[in-house]
Amino acid sequence: MKRFARLIQKLEQSNKTNDKITALVDYFNDADDKDKIWVIALFTGKKPKRPIKSALLKYWAIDITQTPEWLFSESYANVGDLSETIALLLPPAENTSDLQLHKWIEELHDLEGKDDETKKEFILNAWNHLETQERFIFNKLISGNFRIGVSNKMLVNALAKQSSLDSAQIMHSIMGKWNPYEITFHELINGVHVNTDNSWPYPFCLAYALEQEPEKLGDISEWQAEWKWDGIRGQIVKRNGELFIWSRGEELVTEQFPELYFLIDVLPDGVVIDGEILAVQDKQVLSFSTLQQRLNRKTINKKQLEDAPIGFFVYDILEFEAKDFREHPLSERRAVLEQLIGNLEESAVILSPVINCKSWEELAELRQTSRSINSEGIMLKKLSSHYHSGRKRGDWWKWKINPYTVDAVMIYAQKGSGRRANFFTDYTFAVRDGENLVTIAKAYSGLTDKEIKEVNSFVTKNAIEKFGPVRTVKPELVFEIAFEGIAESKRHKAGLALRFPRILRWRKDKKADEINTLEDLRQLLESTF
Amino acid sequence: MALIEFTKRGIYCKQGDFYVDPWWPVDYAVTTHGHSDHVRFGNKYYLCHTLTKPIIKRRISEDLNVETLNYGESIVRNGVDISFYPAGHIIGSAQVRLEYKGEVCVISGDYKTEDDGISDVFEPVKCHSFVSESTFGLPVYKWQKQDAVFNGIKNWVSDNIDAQKTSVLIAYSLGKAQRLIKNLAGNVPIYVHNSIANLNEVIINAGVNLPDTIRIMPETTKDELQKGIVIVPPAMRDSRWIKNLSHPVTGICSGWMQVRAHRRWQSADAGFALSDHADWPGLMDAITATGAEKVYVTHGFTAAFSRFLNDSGIESEEVMTKFGQEDDEENKVDLAEQNDNK
Questions:
Q1: pTM for this prediction
Q2: Domains of chain B
Q3: Which of A492, B100, B283, B293 is 20 to 30 A from A280 in CA distance terms?
């Protein structure tokens, strides 16, 4: 545990990726193999068995420190993290322990099925053997996630550097299905498990936003242009007679989309295709708000199937004839894909069309029509490019159309959580409706730290009312809110809801009487039908 | 009748007709210490500790009319006996003890209970009523012994030197900077920003024993700085000057660094929980030691701290002041730094 605590400290003591990778490499060089497995598991969101509810941890901490419950809550509000609040609140430990991370996890595992008294004794004893930072980690093992600014990519790069193995291969391995209680470190990074598992997906190739003129990319003939679809990125895997659908969040979502089940009979084995899950009717893409009716549902009824039929727009092939196909250039991959998908007539699976243009100007003009087909712009992919793992600058670009914007005034503010626990960072915005203000969106991103501090001090000084954590503030600060779409909504007082609202900029130059009206938004809503 | 009242201008003693740390100009300002949220420009007379006098003259104006007291000494003003006791916050920081017809009130200003090696150690004073800060008045704020914190800083510095990085510590010019200098002095040379060097000069001239430091000059090389410890005030934090150093890494020394959320909020690399304010046990010990019947709680977690005192059987009341609200102190000190730099 001490070695892991030192790693966390090193990771926290730098904002620079290189320093973090160095810390990880150092760790993988000298930590225990079984500990390493768990560090990879924890950093990629796999959780150990958790035989104790976090409410019990809190209760026991309150009990042994004799802290009134309300004071615990005040402390928690300031710290923003339960594990950390408990770690800080406890009296200093009287002993130390050299028990390794994986041993702690095993001991926790063994508590399963024991009575609360036994569990309590174990936890209290553990707390009394751990320093504050170790306690924090220990509590996290039981009740939380390790969000400490280590992305999968960073972790993989460190492992690749330490083991001299290929990073794409390692990404594969750790994204596959594996059990940290059983696998060895050697097996994991060499990917022994993924060969026996039919489901494993490839890391998605991601694009950067195009911030320059497209002319700077060179001759348009070297590029493939496609529409950028506004749905759920998906990867469909067909191997050994089994079909799997993965979402971008590395989640298996196969069950949610019965319209795509037929692929099990149509696709040959050893095929992985990349595309966008969308609401589609008569081969036309429907709005994102239609798709939304189908997301994150446990069961789907007939009406939902009819109202929001699902389709899959395919744009790439990553595995063909059971071989990794990603090193082939896009032009070749596209040709294979057209042969494979092109003949699936009348189906929900459609080849995402390529836009043929002779010049960048022509393409720029077409781009302006994106919204009419529920696209959010254009994707540019270099014809000679490989399918990269993750985000890589240069070969794939998203050239989105500008978002919609509205000027709105802030009327409520709320404190954030975690890193933002002590600042008012979550704001609710309103537009004018005659004499009244009506709320249209909540947003909590888009300001710099400095601006947040400024808004924070405004809120502190101009709070009118207090509803729990929410402050009603004088409607004075005007912000430009960007959003991707607009839909009717019965749940909101305004009768409409904005999709993906975020703060574009603080309009210090505008006064509250210069903001947009609800009527402006209604007109926009009508124009999008 | 109570000895003090809380007015728009600040803490006022009617019997003696003077204020303690007022934030609007008054005739007679009793001053606990030299931080800018406690002492302002424009008062006719100032009364402060002997060591605070050169500091406020340097920071505010040479023209101030300042009377001084040493710890334990007293003067009488309109029948009210005023005396100073060490507050342990920074050099020259004082608790103000007022006595009138047997009634005793102590205004702590800012204080900490741990010996920092450079300020006189906090001394509890028996009183009937006590005005306490509560900057860190939540039980999650319990400081490690300063030796442990300084060992952490020293290890960080030596790791940085090995990795060819420049260690930059960000600390208030008055107080935190001198505490760092006193406790980090040793094998590694310490380089300080102009505003800190100026204050050091004032403090050394007043007779305080401070280890040697090197004032950063235009001709100081990046190579020299990389092999030393660089201390700069908060106003310099995001400056180009730091970015241009050789592989700079920044560290903030503040009690807020106790909590991960605050550490991550700062645009610094490392955070060290080192505070010149009392932690939760320190506040509780100090208050118990005064034996006060009534405790007024000013800046910080006033509501929670005051409620806890009341629940514990110590009568307490929250008081709104303009003393450093949560993280405002830093900003205010920043303004002072800017004045220094002019």
A1: 0.72
A2: 5-141+277-341 (3.60.15.10), 146-272 (3.40.50)
A3: A492
